[in-house]
Design brief:
The protein is α/β, with parallel strands linked by helices. It is built from six helices and twelve strands. An eight-stranded mixed sheet has the order 5-4-1-6-9-10-11-12, with helices on both faces. It has a two-stranded antiparallel sheet with strand order 2-3. Strands 7-8 form a two-stranded antiparallel ribbon. Strand 9, helix 5 (about 165-175) and strand 10 (about 180-185) form a beta-alpha-beta unit. Bound molecules: cytidine-5'-triphosphate (CTP) and calcium ion (CA). Cytidine-5'-triphosphate binds near residues 104 and 136. Pathway: Cofactor biosynthesis; coenzyme A biosynthesis; CoA from (R)-pantothenate: step 3/5; Cofactor biosynthesis; coenzyme A biosynthesis; CoA from (R)-pantothenate: step 2/5.
Length: about 230
């Protein structure tokens, strides 16, 4: 039904989607990471494919089968994710849209230890020296590989400090410089890893559009509706 309503409105388009959570090595056996399952990014890839797009999916540590018919690039760290997404976004004259559904690690150890960090009972616990990773979304938004390339971010917010999730997300949309930002309210803690989600699509130049609670495929189609409207 969804496919029937939208038709193949992304036919002839190339879209890039990132998915999953990146990991930053501490030593050869340990990393800093997060609980992103990659389900939302995979749902976006499948939805775009069903609407006729050529899809490049850059995914980090997604423990799900790669969707058939999608060009998949597997990455590990935020640096690798950045390089793969920037390359895919610039390929063949530039992708029509880039959707950053991945959860990149925000910080990495300043230096990864070449050998396994050992615990020595007489020594104090090690202190981790962290440095920020590249903000891929902000970079994509600032350096578009083609005029009119639609750049989309995701944000999971809990609110706090007297600021609502919507206020935080509006700020993030402007700070990142992207066209669309999909907000997931994770105050209840139920969004990560679940098949269902509740989201709001924010645009730089249009009122927020809520997506009713439902499977991540529904959110995915709502994102492509907003992208297709911008591509015209
Ligand atoms: N993002 C990115 N590169 C990073 C961190 C985040 O491209 N190094 C992208 C995510 O893929 C997402 C968007 O930025 O589309 C928002 O991610 P989020 O973690 O909510 O924002 P941050 O700017 O990292 O802010 P914070 O984690 O402090 O809320
Ligand atoms: Ca972050």
């Amino acid at each position: 039904l969804l496919r029937g309503e939208r038709g193949r409105d992304l036919q002839g388009r190339h879209v890039v989607v990132s998915a999953g959570g990146t990991r930053e090595a501490l030593d050869p056996v340990r990393y800093l990471g997060n609980h992103s399952s990659g389900r939302q990014g995979q749902a976006l890839a499948v939805a775009a494919l069903s609407r006729g797009a050529r899809v490049t999916l850059v995914r980090a540590h997604v423990d799900l089968p790669a969707p058939a018919g999608v060009d998949v690039v597997e990455v590990g760290s935020t640096g690798e994710l950045r390089d793969a997404v920037v390359a895919a976004a610039a390929a063949d004259g530039g992708a029509d849209a880039v959707v950053m559904a991945a959860a990149p690690a925000d910080f990495r150890p300043a230096e990864a230890s070449a050998s396994k960090i050992k615990k020595t009972p007489e020594q104090p616990a090690p202190v981790l020296d962290l440095v920020p990773t590249t903000d891929v979304l902000a970079e994509l938004a600032a350096h578009r590989a083609r005029a009119g390339q639609v750049v989309v971010g995701f944000a999971a917010e809990t609110g706090g400090d007297g600021r609502s999730v919507l206020e935080l997300a509006q700020d993030k949309l402007r700070r990142k410089g992207c066209d669309l930002l999909v907000l997931n309210d994770v105050g209840g803690g139920a969004v990560f890893g679940s098949a269902d989600t509740e989201a709001v699509v924010l645009a730089v130049d249009a009122p927020p559009r809520p997506v009713p609670a439902g499977p991540k495929g529904l959110v995915a189609h709502a994102v492509w509706d907003a992208v297709a409207a911008r591509l015209g």
